[in-house]
Design goal:
heterodimer; A: mainly beta; six-stranded mixed sheet; four-stranded antiparallel sheet; 0% helix; globular; B: mainly beta; seven-stranded mixed sheet; 11 strands; 54% strand
Amino acid sequence: AQTVTQSQPEMSVQEAETVTLSCTYDTSENNYYLFWYKQPPSRQMILVIRQEAYKQQNATENRFSVNFQKAAKSFSLKISDSQLGDTAMYFCAFIPNFGNEKLTFGTGTRLTIIP
Amino acid sequence: DAGVIQSPRHEVTEMGQEVTLRCKPISGHNSLFWYRQTMMRGLELLIYFNNNVPIDDSGMPEDRFSAKMPNASFSTLKIQPSEPRDSAVYFCASSPDRAGQETQYFGPGTRLLVL
């Protein structure tokens, strides 16, 4: 079974700073997808970024980028120039690239951006 | 696109009553997922459908829970009878691909409180 671990339950940074959220996962699969979802106080789950394991290039979406280390099974999220609207719970998630497998979520990191 | 639509957004009911949650997936998506989120257990996948057929319902907690997808544009999650421990946020998500290897897009959730 796959597991996803987010070791930082809570983090806080000053507005405009850069912050990195960590995520590690455990799997025996070689092909899979990784995601970061954001859940603001509104409770809506919003996709932040997606990474395909067979792509070595790290995914980026504007101020959001990942550091994907396949050998280390690590998938951290970097938020640059953090904004107040980035305050949210962030969930890392994993799914293998075959079969009837479920999306496995980590326990989340609560990020607070301080004005 | 309107995104995944869920109704109601909030539901307060008394123990023993029947509760029906509704979901309209994004048009053209083949897979639909029902999740439950609680503080204690995090995000749990309850059931998912592919092409309107239930594929994996191993996450459904017990016989009080049932889900249907009569057509590609509508699904229901029913709890009968409801209990206080069912209080949670219930999310519906849809994906264009089987088993959600492509991105899962979440609805806004239904916040259920069972008194």
